[in-house]
Amino acid sequence: MTRIFISCLPLLSVASVAAFSTPCPLTTSTRLRSLEAPTPSSSALFLSSTTTASVSDIEIDEAKQLLCRAAETKLENPDHVLDAMMSLEKNCKMKFKEDSAAFSKDIMDNISGEWRLIFTTGTKERQKKSGGRVNYFPLKAIQSFDASVEPKVIENAIFIGNLPLVRFSGDFDFNERKRKIEFDFDNIELLGLINIKLGRKEIAKIGATTGLGSSGNEKLAENGRRAFFDWISADDDIATARGGGGGLALWKRVVDDGEKKYGTGPF
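Predicted structure:
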């Protein structure tokens, strides 16, 4: 059983899923005033900001459309998927700056549920080892969140068919000012039957030595800090985030018989 457990841990490597000027003299500034461009009118400023917002919204919509297709079919070109995720991240950061409270609330309103990992770039360490190649995630990996309880619950599991081969569970917090989910795993379940309680440092060490997570997570645990995701988006269909190890991830919401799934895995 131990050998099965250890051999399966690397499969979660990318599923758990972790970059003034001084003032001018008065006489000079007086002379320069005549050369300055006229101050834009308030209507021009409004039009400019509206146009910028519209472009951002359009790019977000275009990126999400491609990512939804990728999540459904896994047929979109991986390079295009990566480009779409980076575009979505850039534009969502802009929207977050406009209204951080509303943006964070939207994430938390949608985060609860089960999400199947579709695409990941892996951590920066893994990208270097693979020569920068990225692709669709080949296994059935389900990450679930429940923000309706306290402490909030996070789970991460690898399935073979309907059987949960390995499932990690713990709790998470959401930092609204940073769009950041910080979490710890403290329990491992094998084959849906055997539960093993572990501390955060032990989990982080397992991740660092087997590929479950980046070596940075072990350092975070040693300093009393938690692993994290910088969340990008979450809606009825897909979710995206950047892990603490620098990798990007795309998930598809798990839906069973027309209803969103919550809590303890899809089966």
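Summary: The chain has eight helices and twelve strands.
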